[in-house]
Amino acid sequence: MEPNTAYDFTGYRTIVDVAGGQGRLLAGLLSAAPSANGVLFDLPHVLEDARHLINDAGVTDRCAFVGGNFFEAVPKGGDAYILRNIVHDWEDDQAVAILTSCRRAMGEGARLILVERYLAEDPREALLVLHADLEILVNVGGRERTTDEYATLLTRSGLRLAQTIPLGAAQEAMGHYLIEAQPV
Q1: How far is the C-alpha of 62 from the C-alpha of 9, rounded, in Å?
Q2: Which has the least CB within 10 A, 72, 130, 133, 182?
Q3: What is the 3-state secondary structure (H, E, C) of 75-104?
Q4: Please, what's the b/e burial string for 114-146 (b: 16 or more CB within 10 A of its CB; e: otherwise)?
Q5: Whole-angstrom Cα distance, residue 126 to residue 119?
Q6: What is the pLDDT of residues 39-72, one digit of tens each?
Q7: Which stretches of the chain are DSSP H helices?
Q8: CA-CA distance, 36 to 15, in Å (whole number)?
């Protein structure tokens, strides 16, 4: 999945990858946006393994590693906050808490970008995603959501849905789309 080919990150100065794991997404974004800096934010023990991947990608000099808990706070100073496959892991109130932490960190012109699976309103079009929805429900208690359901979560968090962008039909896109939000 390569969101940087569907969305232009080159205009951002600082990209914060919230719960970015080992940093694969952020490394790709920084490679595609050579004037941007990045912040890889995750639990401290997760960041230990991320340094190798970021170094191998050649973007270590433009990447900060910040440990923390997204329920408490995320790093301030980003003009783009990206969360890939994070919100769907949580029930609505927990998802709102995560998004609200992001909103508190965001400046006026910042953007929040979610990368999540697209869940069509018509169940016949959503069979593959509904299968993933069942897996998420059983394994972590979260769920896949429609665009309207994401819009509701964003509104509850002090954000508004700005646009959605499909990532295409390629195998690596896996039915995902970008959901861009901005502060209200």
Answers
A1: 15
A2: 72
A3: CCCCCEEEEECCHHHCCHHHHHHHHHHHHH
A4: bbbbbbeeeeeebeebeebbeebeeeeebbbbe
A5: 6
A6: 999 999 999 889 999 999 999 999 999 999 999 9
A7: 24-32, 44-56, 92-105, 127-139, 147-156
A8: 7
Is 88 a known active-site residue?
yes
Which positions ≥6 away from 15 have C-beta within 8 Å?
Answer: 9, 26, 29, 30, 33, 36, 37, 38, 39, 78, 79, 80, 81, 82
The number of C-alpha atoms within 13 Å of 167 and in the hemisphere containing its C-beta is 23
Residues paired with 113 in a beta bridge: 82, 180
The letter for the amino acid at 61 is D
Q: Pick the catalytic residue from 45, 52, 88, 131.
A: 88
Residue 7 contacts residue 34 (beta carbons within 8 Å)? no
Per-residue tokens: 152:
């509701």
